[in-house]
Structures are given as structure tokens and as C-alpha cells.
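Reopening this one. Same input as before:
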Amino acid sequence: MTPHADPQAGAAVKAADRAHVFHSWSAQGLIDPLAVAGAEGSYFWDYDGNRYLDFTSGLVYTNIGYQHPKVVAAIQEQAGKLATFAPAFAVDVRSEAARLIAERTPGDLDKIFFTNGGAEAVENAVRMARLHTGRAKVLSAYRSYHGATSTAINLTGDPRRWASDTASSGVVHFWAPFLYRSPFYATTEAEESARALQHLEDTIAFEGPGTIAAIILETIPGTAGIMSPPPGYLKGVREICDRHGIVFILDEVMAGFGRTGKWFAAEHFDVIPDLMTFAKGVNSGYVPLGGVAISAEIAATFDKRPYPGGLTYSGHPLACAAAVATIQVMEDERVVQRAAELGETVLGPGLRELAARHPSVGEVRGVGAFWALDLVRDRETHEPLVPYNAAGEANAPMAAFGAACKKNGLWPFINMNRTHAVPACNIGDAEAKEGLAALDAALAVADEHVA
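Same output, byte for byte:
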């Protein structure tokens, strides 16, 4: 669809937004939300006729792009057939969505508990782990994001936790591996993996193994920086969990459903968790949906014992219809394979070429349609382009970089000193290269701040 200008309509949309919408993660009086007129494929546009290539996939969830006709049609058809129904009943589309998801999860994660999104999935996975083990504590990594509900925000490692962190949920944070900014003074991936595992062992020993219900990790941390764990690390965590009777939870809310070039990122590491959370790409975000994939052992805990949790809209028919259609589209159009090819042939090589030309790029990390550029002031010291959790004037270099991206028609995903390249998994080569060209121009602005 070609965007057309209608500034008057855009002004009305923005006025209504500013009058009545309370936005997340924002100081309400300091924001100026873009009024969006429409979206299709990998693009969206405003009411002034400006079109943007979306290198954020919404919030890393439109894995098949905007307005895919088959998914839109499935939602419309389901609305005409059965628009909603309570979760206690067996509903065909709910059962089919669960079956299709269970077919793709690793190991015996064959029972699916549906939620409305990723945070609720994490909330319920932790509840299941605590009830299954009879223990209270949960370990999570500092470089992480698990959601904004009560338990999920306590588990989160980034600064968004601080304002709501009552430290009353039995959450203990630890350092996961990240060689580029290693907390373990490691110089190789093997050293980083071994030292990170020893640090986790020590944390468990001092916290008391018999008090720990679960360890939760993003398989590949997303918002925190897209840092793939080094070889052997996740298998090492699996072994530690098995030894101490700890439930191993993998958070695949962002990394799942094709984002990394596999149905789930766990496949890259040949590891099977006890519980796996998902959301976002399960139906490309067309209708809110998330869930927990549950192992046979943990599911059996609740065979005769009621699970004390539920949601009014668990397995909502419209959301499940969108999931069924999305999974079918991903199969028919080889979207998972496309994401892998995209990373290998376009995004990976292209981003590394940018790094070779721009001194502000300290490291390129990623796989599939899941990439990050770590922007720095000094390549030798790895000093970030802006300080941790920078705001205002301290964040000016990243703000200038973001403005340059938008000026060149690219909507960027920016977090702290990083920009992430996370387009739709089925983006075309020409569109991806268009995004790389816009990043190239914007990185010249970042280069101006290199020491």
C-alpha cells in the first residue's frame, strides 16, 4: 500500500492519544508518539506520508511482517465462527494451536498453558516451578528482561526493575556469560563459559541448593544485547539444575518462533529445559498471546492437584486462530529457513562490513534475524558510546544516531548503547540492504562521538 498524506487526521489521532492514552515506560509529558496511519510487510507510515522500514518488528514480534493476508483472514473467519469462549472448555482452534506449538518445542514440552503475553508466561512458569519443587528462590541473570508483571520485573536484570524491585520475591541475580564485557576477566569463549558456570555454582552454594526452585535464562538475551551464550554454557546450566533438583526455565518470548533461524533458539545449543516461555512471534503479535510449554514431569505434578492459576482470556480463540495461521504461513513460506539465510547471507555480512567502516561499532553479534551492534567510544577499551542507563544530555550520541536513522527512513531498535537489527524474519534481501544503507549513514553520526 502506498501511504498518502492526511496531516489533519494525524493531528486528531495524536490529540486523542495525548488526552487519554497513558504510555508504558514513559514520562507522559515528555513524549511525542508518532501517529501511525498504516503498515504492511516490513514498512509502516505516518499521516504526513513518511514511510519507515521497521527494523524493530514492532517490539521484536512481527516475525512475518504486518498485515499478512492469511493471518488477517484467519482472524476474520474465527470472529465470524466463535469470537470468544471461556478457557475451561475444549475449543477446536485452541487445541490446534497447542498441538502445533507442542510439535515444535524441544523434548517432551508437550503441554501448553496459554497466557496473554510473555510476562504472564514467565509469571506462571515460575509459579509452576515453585509448586513443583516446594522451594521459593529463583535465579536470573543481570543482563535480562523477563517482563513487567510483579515476579517478571523482579527477575528482570535491567534498570526497569529498580522502581518496582521490592526484593521480596525470592529472586537472586547472577552474572551470565558475555565475553565482550566479561565480568570474569576471560579472554576466550571457553574461559567465559567455564568461569560463568563456576560463578553460578558458587551462587547456588551460598544461596543453598535446597532453597532454589528454578533458574531462568533467556536462551539468547534480547533487549539486553543479543548475546549468544558460549558453547557448553547452557548444557552446563542444565547439568547443574539436574544435580540440584532445580527447574530449568528458558525464556523464548523474543528468540522463539523463527527469530534465530530455528523454531526455538534452544535448538542451536541442543538443550531441553523443563519449562519454556513464549509469546510475540507465536502469532506475529496480531492478537495478544503467550504461553508456557511444560515438560511431562512438571505437568504430572498437577494431574491430581489443581494448578492455582488462570486467566480469563487464556487461549483466546482469536489469538489461537492467529497462531494457527501464523505457524502455517511460516511452514508454507519457509520463514524459519528464511531467517537463517537472512542472517548468513545478508544481515551478518552486511553488519560486519559496517563495523569495518565505522569506528563507533565495537562488536557485531547475532544470528538469523536477531542482531545487535554494540556502539562504543573506544574500541580498545570497549567504553560504551553512552553510559549505562544514560538519559538526557548523557544519551545525546544515541539520540542523534536514532534521529539520523529516522531521517533516512529507518525505524531503529535502540537500547542503551546498542542498536539492534531485528526486522521481520521474511524481509526481502533488497529491503534488508535498504536498512543496512540507512544504518551506514546514521553510524557516521555515531562516529563523531568516538574518542
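So the earlier flakiness isn't reproducible anymore. For the record, Residues 335-357 form the longest helix (23 residues).
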